[in-house]
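The protein record now logged underneath.
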Amino acid sequence: MSEPWNCLPLPLADDVSASWASVFPEGLPGWLLADASVSEDVVVQAVARSLFLRQTLERHPQQVRTLLESRLLSEPTTPEYLQSRCREYLSEVSDEPELHVALRRFRREAQFRIIWRDLLRWADLAETMAATSAFAEVCIQGALDWLNEAACEQHGTPWGLDPVTGAEAPQSLIVIGMGKLGGRELNVSSDIDLIFAFPSKGETRGGGRSLDNQQFFIRLGQRLIQALDQITADGFVFRVDMRLRPYGQSGALALSFAALETYYQDQGRDWERYAMVKSRVVAGDLKAGQVLMESLRPFVYRRYIDFSAFESLRSMKAMIGREVRRQGLENNIKLGSGGIREIEFVVQAFQLIRGGRDRELQQRELLVILKELEELELLPSQVVNELREAYVFLRNLEHALQGMEDKQTQLLPEDELSRARVALIMGFEEWHGCQQALARHRENVATHFANIIATEEDEDNARSSLDEGWCELWLAEVDEVSDKEWLESHGYEDPAGSLGLLGSLRESRTVQTMQTQGRKRLNQFMPVLLAALAEVEKPSETLSRVLQLVEAILRRTAYMVLLLENPGARAQLVSLCSESPWIARQLAETPLLLDELLNAESLYSPPAREELQDDLRQQTLRISYDDLENQMESLRHFKKAHTLRVAASELKGTLPLMKVSDYLTWIAEVVLDHVVDVAFTNLVARHGYPGQAEGANGGTDFAVIGYGKLGGIELGYTSDLDLVFVHTADPELSTDGDKPIDNVVFYTRLGQRIVHILNAQTPSGQLYEVDMRLRPSGNSGLLVSTLGAFEKYQRNDAWTWEHQALARARGVAGSRQTIAAFEAVRHDILCQHRDKDKLRQEVLEMREKMRTNLGTPESRREETFHIKHDAGGIVDMEFMVQYLMLAWSEAHPELTQWSDNIRQMEELGRAGVLPVNDAEKLREAYIALRSSIHRRALQNLNSQVASDTFTDERRYIQSVWKKIMAV
């Protein structure tokens, strides 16, 4: 055999020659050469380009032979051909496991053909995208047809109103493809974004037991996802992402047409309009699906030129910038600056703004829309040409990166061998040439992206003139006496100390070893910062706080550029650091939070709970649930960013105490909901869904119960989370996956994973510290218990203090049905008959234990008052309320409706259990004491104050304590 690999560049030549003998030890087989276009040299070129092609030839030669017999590699891959092959693979399937095997083997064959033709450039970009998209569609349709027939045999056929005729008729699941699948632009190793819908409500007919249509289609959807997504010995077909559906991962898996229309009409967000631009029915009842898509068109395309979209587009652009900075995505050709997503963003921006009037823009394929933008004279020809060339280059490069190993990636390789492969695929003699071409295209894209979606900050980066004295001061160009005089004249209260801090920074090893560009940025930034500090009270003290941040960003000077180019953000930085050392520390630990300072309006207007859910959903939408590391980092950033906004609002006075606690609690609830989704999805992928009784809704029966400050809606900036986990699943059943486990084991592992995600220390710190000691039997009890076992423990074994804790408990995340069941149990337990004298004594004993262990020692009580734990403090009020709740809920069941102290006090007053005057005064005292704790937390101070603080409040609280507790 000759050695055609000798013509390949090193290190490819060595790599191919080393593996050649293992692939074809006896030379190329005749069946491989039956295609006139395939030669030894061509095979060498193919295996040089792709490990996936090489391994498929080596491990599955018979399947490649069957592929060649069905159609030569030299012939294009058409939808008709793929449909024919799919039918052949599924023709002998008799059960669900066989369906999974057949689909995965079909994938191997189709991927081999598509990647071979793409990497050898036998197919252009248009064919590759169309073939991959068509392959996905035939797999979805083939699997759906088989599974639907099996489901109908088991449960009967779902019936309802036909959206086309209006008459009753059998119904089918409609599968909507989003993103690149919807646009017929799928890449060679992509996930698929889907939404499931069905025409109308109704029930199944002809089965042993009828099912509600939604339950039927949810179960069918789950089986369809498993058929495509589940990893088996044969691999998988497509990773399926359902998070673009209404309400995201927490929403129902399948919704009726009416429910979808209502959602988008009433709650649809701007980013969902952006996502729906490419939506298309890809499987199921296509005629019914078309009716649905027409009904949703007004949501996507306004009838007028939608200038209101600019603001949301600017927000999305800012979010893109934050993500690039947070994840360090500059080597990512999709998400990084000048990448594929920026081209998509430009094109879809025009569609959102003008698509309602210019119907030519209501198409899905990006290259088609680009042509329309040129013809409508919305973009100059040069811009369109540069964006088109960049898109084709970047998409071909994306396929090269993915086709090498059949892996979903958009990251540029770092090793020499992979770079040589990419250069060969892209038609370059070496990597450097490929890199130069890439840089040119990305620069063009970034320029057009910035110009088309310009923000106010982009449009006005002019810097105000700066007194040269600040530059001289930072660069130490004049004598120390003059520097001190300069600082003193500008309000610095400790000029000598400030000069010492600046000198230490200048002489630090990090500054001394900075690269030229970084040092230049620092020298531009520091004088501007010093001038800004002169505008706040105590500039010297504030400087010491801000320098923590400066030291943190010395190696990431892009943040200095951000502050240089955004005077508003710079002013917010010095103002907030002046008012709170806690905020200064947060910014130093997580410089990415500087992005939050760019918009003063949003900084001081924290979003409501629904908006928090929406924001987290957007931030995590493109992060796979399997990518636990990035999920955890994103969650930590989300929590810190929104906590910063709450703290800033409290300092500015735009949020009163009650609202501060509300917002901090909402943040935790939204985080917990998402963490439950991530952990649940991970376990389902491995073990299947937990077994459920016939007629159940197909979701999870798991709920997170919040106790303490979380349950009482009173979270502070550094509060931990007191949690209890319960579920209502049948412990005798098992999961339905390939590796089934008992429901009990499933939910125990779910609880463990949730605690891990919350507790784990990552580069961004800990999400929340979790305390599980309030669960039945404390640390010695099960991590997760059934609700029945929880109720039995509360009735028979719980201590009084555990019932006190239950008064402040409520469901905060997970199954709404399980939460409702928990609330019923809580109500019943709190309403039990109790001996009031015995109850009072037990509460007093527990209070004394806490005061002894946590309060101020007697020797220091004349000097110090602990706001929480000393007599007349917060815990006294909490214990009084809990005692009254337990003593009087039997007579006044309405007392149990709230879990927070404030509303419990109000309810006790309304019920006549507590005099209204006392209830009001206690409420005012409670707010005053808690407000002090909040403010002190922002100053990094503890809950201990001088003994002469809150004397009136303490005296009053103690007087009420004596009346209620009879001491």
